[in-house]
Design goal:
By secondary structure, the protein is mainly α. It has helices at 3-20, 44-62, 71-75, 84-97.
């Protein structure tokens, strides 16, 4: 699975959540949006749903079981939730390590 494929999976899940919540967001700039925190486009429950969906899609497409939120996720100096790209890189590292 490539970084671009992971980014598309994450973007699709975020867009679906936002549409379900009737939140308007400029899809052309969604990759630059903060995923979680003060400037976030998602609340904590939405984020949990996105992460669970990404884990499920990764398993379906690769056969690998990954857990995104673990001790490395929590203590990481560079937050995986800073952007779609940072989360994608984190997920790719999980897939490669599985």
């Amino acid at each position: 699975m490539t970084l671009d494929e992971i980014k598309e999976i994450i973007k699709a899940n975020i867009i679906e959540v936002l549409e379900d919540n009737d939140v308007k967001v400029d899809i052309s700039t969604i990759e630059d949006q903060q995923i979680f925190g003060a400037e976030s486009i998602l609340d904590s429950l939405d984020l949990v749903g996105v992460i669970a969906s990404v884990e499920e899609v990764v398993q379906e497409k690769t056969g690998k079981v990954i857990v995104i939120v673990d001790e490395n996720f929590i203590v990481s100096d560079d937050s995986p939730l800073a952007s779609i790209l940072s989360l994608s890189n984190f997920v790719l590292s999980k897939i490669n390590a599985a």
